[in-house]
Recover the amino acids of this structure.
């Protein structure tokens, strides 16, 4: 028997499996978070070889968008289901971006080089589904459903499945709700869903996801993943709790800050789709979007740093995430943002690049964020009027990126003292002069290890701190 007139996604997935491993609510929430991270990495690997200017997948989610990586926001259409009292449909009619047919509305808004394909549909307040967090992913390679829900006794449970029939049942449950609340929109959305094949994923996709899932687990141990005939998986909980409460607190803080910011950004981008807004309103909304994105990226980096701190083998974790990538594309997108951030603090940032940038081996999902975080913290420690030179060059079998400050561009004899930094736990530091809280150098170095690189910090009397980053070059077989 269902709790409501339509089954919730928890009920759909629970009916397809014979047993469920018992675990705490905290562990279920952890499984949800690491599974989303593994899904994001799987999507990045899956979509890496496809064109970035066309829609490559569909994501149905609640209660907020879950993936913020620029590549995924460009290539995935997101539809969010929510039962919040605020009705976003009053601001922006629902639109289905599509390349199929003229009867389907197409709309995409570009904000700071990121294509926005986000829409919202309502859930009825009495619907038990409104209390669930879920994510349905549809691509040409696989279909996937993930659900975090609360049981009758109050404990939360996490479920997910690659089984095509299970994912199809989950969509049918969601589609029936669209028929109830917005029947005129169901046909278009159903066409989009059915555009992706109802076939079992390649076994290598399942293996890859399982590997990514194990890598993302924050415990220092590798936990086996169990499954049954319906391909619903449940990571086994760790045998002993973490002994690092400040790291766990940082993870929880980063997650709690990121969630409302993601919702604010989604609402902002929906408003930006309107055609009747005055220019000054658009300008302010773009500022909100930019600030939200900046802080979301910052929170995700804090979360990743805390995960690395909990891993017993961070180097092994790092090596499993690396792939050849074009650094030129990253820098072309990043340098204007770095210069804009420097200008806001009355600093000058000059970038010196070689004529041709080689291919490096790194983590595409993290490289830009780690570099941006380092430069952001670097600029915060400098007085106004300073100059920063970012020089990129090859050094043997590595790429060398060096940040050198000059504290007064007019006075070459100007000297400075290092900024005051106070430690906050294992990962954070505080600068009293600026009120800035950021990752400490030890955590930052671990992040660079996680992307296959190395960070060296040197103190020089005339130049202050000079930061040097090394990234391995791709070695081509002869």
């Amino acid at each position: 028997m269902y709790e409501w007139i339509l089954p919730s996604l928890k009920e759909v997935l629970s009916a397809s499996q014979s047993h469920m491993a018992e675990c705490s609510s905290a562990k279920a929430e952890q499984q949800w978070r690491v599974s989303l991270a593994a899904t994001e990495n799987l999507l990045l690997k899956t979509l890496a070889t496809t064109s970035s200017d066309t829609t490559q997948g569909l994501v149905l989610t609640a209660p907020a968008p879950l993936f913020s990586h620029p590549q995924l926001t460009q290539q995935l259409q997101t539809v969010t289901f929510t039962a919040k009292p605020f009705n976003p449909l009053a601001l922006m009619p629902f639109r289905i971006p599509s390349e199929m047919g003229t009867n389907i509305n197409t709309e995409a808004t570009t904000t700071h080089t990121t294509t926005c394909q986000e829409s919202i549909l309502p859930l009825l307040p009495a619907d038990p589904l409104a209390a669930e967090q879920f994510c349905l992913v549809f691509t040409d390679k696989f279909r996937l459903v993930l659900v975090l829900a609360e049981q009758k006794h109050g404990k939360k449970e996490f479920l997910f499945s690659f089984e095509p029939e299970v994912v199809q049942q989950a969509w049918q449950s969601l589609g029936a709700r669209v028929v109830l609340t917005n029947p005129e929109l169901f046909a278009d959305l159903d066409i989009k869903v059915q555009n992706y094949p109802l076939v079992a994923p390649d076994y290598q996709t399942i293996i890859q996801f399982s590997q990514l899932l194990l890598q993302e687990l924050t415990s220092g141990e590798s936990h086996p993943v169990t499954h049954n005939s319906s391909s619903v998986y449940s990571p086994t909980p760790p045998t002993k709790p973490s002994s690092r409460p400040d790291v766990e607190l940082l993870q929880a803080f980063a997650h709690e800050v990121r969630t409302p910011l993601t919702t604010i950004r989604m609402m902002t981008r929906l408003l930006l789709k309107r055609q009747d807004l005055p220019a000054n309103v658009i300008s302010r909304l773009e500022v909100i979007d930019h600030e939200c994105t900046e802080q979301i990226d910052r929170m995700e980096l804090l979360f990743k740093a805390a995960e690395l701190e909990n891993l017993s083998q961070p180097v092994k974790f790092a090596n499993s995430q690396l792939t050849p990538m074009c650094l030129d594309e990253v820098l072309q997108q990043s340098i204007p943002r770095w210069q804009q951030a420097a200008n806001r603090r009355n600093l000058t940032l000059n970038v010196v690049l070689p004529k041709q940038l080689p291919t490096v081996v790194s983590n595409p999902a993290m490289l830009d964020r780690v570099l941006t975080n380092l430069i952001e913290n670097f600029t915060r420690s400098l007085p106004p009027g300073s100059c920063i030179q970012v020089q990129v060059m090859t050094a043997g079998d590595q790429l060398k990126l060096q940040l050198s400050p000059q504290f007064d561009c007019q006075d070459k004899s100007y000297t400075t003292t290092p900024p005051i930094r106070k430690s906050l736990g294992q990962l954070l530091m505080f600068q009293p002069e600026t009120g800035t809280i950021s990752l400490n150098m030890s955590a930052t170095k671990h992040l660079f290890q996680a992307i296959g690189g190395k960070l060296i910090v040197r103190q020089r009397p005339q130049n202050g701190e000079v930061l040097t980053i090394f990234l391995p070059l791709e070695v081509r077989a002869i």
Summary: Confidence is low (pLDDT under 50) at residues 85-116, 218-243. The first strand starts at residue 57 and ends at 62. The radius of gyration is 23 Å. The chain has twelve helices and 20 strands.
